[in-house]
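Structure request: Transcription-repair-coupling factor, Parascardovia denticolens DSM 10105 = JCM 12538.
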Amino acid sequence: MTDTKSATRKADAGGQGAAPEIKLDGSLSSFLPGLREDPAFADLVNDGRGVSLVGAPLGIRPALAAATGEGRPVVMVVPSGRDAEDMVGSIRSWYRGNPADVDMIPAWETLPHERLSPRADTVAQRMSVFHRLAHPVEGSDLFGPLKIVVVPVRSLIQPVVRGIQDMEPVVFQVGQEMDLSQAADRLVENAYTCADLVMDRGEFALRGGILDIFPPTAPHPVRIDFFGDEIDSIKPFHASDQRSFGQGQERIWAPACREIPLNQKVRRRAAALVGSIPNADDMLESISQGIPVEGMESLIPALIDDVMPVYSLFDPRAVIMFCDMERLRRGADDLTKTANEFLAASWHVAASGHGAGAPISFDKSNFLDFSEVHRSLELTHPATWDLSSLGVDPSADGHARLAAVPPDEYRGDESKATSGIQALRERGFAVAVTAAARGTLSRLRRVISSTGVSGVDFRLSLASDGFIDDKAHLALLTERDITGHSSVAAQAKTPKRRRKAIDLVELKKGDFVVHEQHGIGRFVEMVRRPVRPVNTRIRGLAPSSRGAAGHDPSDQAFREYLVIEYAPSKRGAPPDRLYIPTDQLDQVSKYIGAEEPKLNKLGGSDWSQTKAKARKKVKEIAQDLVKLYAARQRTQGFAFSPDTPWQRELEEAFPYQETPDQLTTIDEVKADMEKPIPMDRLICGDVGFGKTEIAVRAAFKAIQDSKQVAVLVPTTLLAQQHFETFTDRYEGFPVTVKMMSRFQSAAENKETIEGLRDGSVDLVIGTHKLLNPQIKFKDLGLVIIDEEQRFGVEHKETLKALRTNVDVLSLSATPIPRTLEMAVTGIREMSTLDTPPEDRLPVLTYVGAYEDTQVVAAIRRELLRGGQVFFVHNRVQDISKVAAHIKDLVPEAKIGMAHGKMGEKQLDNIIHDFWHRDIDVLVCTTIVETGLDISNANTLIVDRADRFGLSQLHQLRGRVGRGWERAYAYFLYDPAKPMTQTAHDRLSTIAQNTALGAGYDVAMKDLEIRGTGNLLGGEQSGHIEGVGFDLYVRMVSDAVQDYKESERTDAVATTVDLPVEASIPPSYIDSDKLRLEVYRKVAAAQGEEDFQEIRDELTDRYGKPPQALDLLFAVARLRSRAKAMGITDLIAQGRNIRVVGPDPQESVLMRLKRIYKTVQYRPVTHTLIIPTSFQGSFDSDPMDSKQVLEWTDLLLDDLTWRGKKA
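Returned structure:
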């Protein structure tokens, strides 16, 4: 950046004092009285009967609806769901009453006959609106009457189950008496799913007197604590760690999650239909048991007697406004056509006798004819207006025209808009400028005020379009009118679930596990075994004679064990089995690796050799990491200045709500930049989780200090995407952004290189070409590297050299495991973005046999909404044949082809065309698996999906669903070819986990292995396979700690096995999976603070812990103490206890022999055999669990005896 430019920047950034203030209340209602100056507006608001066609531009419609809605109900029909959302926000900005009086009936994202369900929150919002329309309760904050309802045409023409409006939501209120099992029955009827752990909307879990529930309309799940039958408290909790937080709530309501009531009548009908509908038996059986299943809505015609039109719920006094009749009619026709195609395709596939047609009549669910709906509404409502943006002749009968016109001549031209505002003010117009994001409004205010225009009203609101009204002498200009685009309102919407802090490892029979000492085995089962022998014989007493004085000796103490099978020690022998007490679960992890491992033999040497090799390699890595870190610490870097007012303005103009992770990461990056040591930070997060915005802000901060920024990307497409993002975000600021790639001419690239040398280019985006030694920067301050792992070795070396003297920010879409992140803390700064962005919807996933009709219907449906399709076929040999076949099936579609055997240039051009929407269907190999971010491609079809791995399927599915639209993924297999069991399991896993659920965790692990390789070097994969991923990461962590604390001694593995009932009773936590999670946490606890934390969490999640759990904590404390003393075994054997570990001093041994008469010491094996009183004797009772632990604790005191102090 040149010095003059820098000076201007500093001056402008500092002085903005004179501009008028921004009104933050978000309301435009104060302008409504002025609009009544337009007689046509006033007549419509006051009556409007007899009017059928109204000339009203888009911008004034929300004002018309808001003003009319003050006197009578309004229903506004709009072409799409996005229009409906925009309209609701705009109307609320104009409306004088409670914003909750305005709502919309969202449309399903699925078609009526698809075997895919609409989202639970969509259904819940629909159900709440239906209930409020039919049963309004005056003065209620939950069920108050609706004044204005916005309806997308799709919702208007889709019939609903008759009586749906009478399905009562379940309301929970503090102090209310409610039978817990009845509440659970009501939730099941409202289609909630009973789960072990509440993670997703529409789930509930019952544990003793605690009910966890996630109502689809609530921002967080809630924990309802019952005291007997009375609700004691309602508290929100985080799905990620299951801990409650914040203030309690007075009440929560749980609307239905599905539009079929799962009542007895529906269940009986489902049971009766089993066997009569092809491919639907699984669904029908689940429904008959009251379990909601994916796609059950497609069976509405078979399960429900009658349906009704949505408009039968509208208030008969309501004014009906149809927005843009032609668009509505076209949208309704397209929908009906697509739905019919889909019905034919999906039931053609489902009916086993190909072409047999639908097995039952589906007419009931069909979309209604739009013209008939329109006619019915005209007959039943006093005022029905068609609002048109086209010219309307007000003198014709039944026609009216508002004086407002759209400010189209300014759109996208800020200087024209500014001079237009000046002219309007001179003519005496009131002018208001509005935007949804505060930073954008600040920028517009600065631009407009700098030209000397005064008296303009700046308001923060959700109005999306403006108008100029000659009669009312009023002009409203929105961000879209002035800049040509609009930001999304920064509303704090429902936070999505973060990546789980609870690592639930579901162990199934046959899963491979790794034991740190014994190696790789196979999980068999979890068993409860008695640990205390019955010993009533000595006393000669009947078991009942002890009464309440202590434990009945016939009460056996139980403990839970994991049974693991190892390779047999001799050929032909049965496998060896190992019983591992659950308090030692920190030694065990699920084996995660790409290949199936070989089982180790118990006591064999192969495991210790594998471990030694891996450990050696890990030490080298840790050493490299520490060296690089030390070199950076010694270098003097540039300390950037604190944020300027412009920085704040740029950040406030961000069109979305930042996620909490984003805010934390941005703060961390800025803090690093302001230090005099060069920054080296890695940011991990999936595509679309907000990494680019962090880069935008960091780069801007560097440019504010007159430094240059280089953004390095692996592909030309990414360069193009980043270039558009950076240019868009820096609009209105004096920042020069350039791009260097093959899509620029040689002359353009030469000019950019010149600009970098003389400082006139502030930021350059390019591929590895930027690393060319010929390219010189005037003053490079920050390098941003996107997807560093995709650069070659020689490029990485260049980057390594850069790291020691400029600030480096690396971005990666491959996740890095938490454990590893903790391991390298303080050596490589790292930030993780775990929270998905707000509007990211789960991808609707269909798994089924390949059929041409299904493929045609899926492609046409996507093309109808203006979208694009990925068709993945992973065999290069016949990919052109497949592309030609699709061209025959869908001749109107533009087909492109991409695969790895193409030249780089040709591939770039194809991807470039696809991104610019010149290709409708891209037939490609898994080349699309990573890095592509094309938000308009929202249908994925995978041919022969049975040939892909689980994480590949997840990665592919992640390519779609990046935009606002609902995305679809079709995983198809060849019905003529037999499928392996593994392939079948993979496809069923992917079908079940449409959200970020358990299957996501499996894929996450697979990706984390990749992430680990990227961070530590690719040659690690062999070692990771050898010892399993979790243990490998633990080794890295230990090695790094060793380098950081050279005095550290290696911790020993300690086994404690005493006759103590240290377990979690199934009556407290009945799910094996959740019990395992708690055992793992207790085993890994490091000290008293950890134990207290776990105890608090258990009390929060499950209620007061029972005594057996306190004993589990006591055993864990004892184990922790023994470990610190170097003891490896503390095991009860008959009447003795075996202690293996440190050799006792002579004085200690003599003392032990005095106290425990028959003690034996074996120096070769470092073993003490000490007699115990656990089983009692002729004159004493057997010890209970608490006494056993106290006795053992005293024994440890004796082992550490140092003699009396003088």
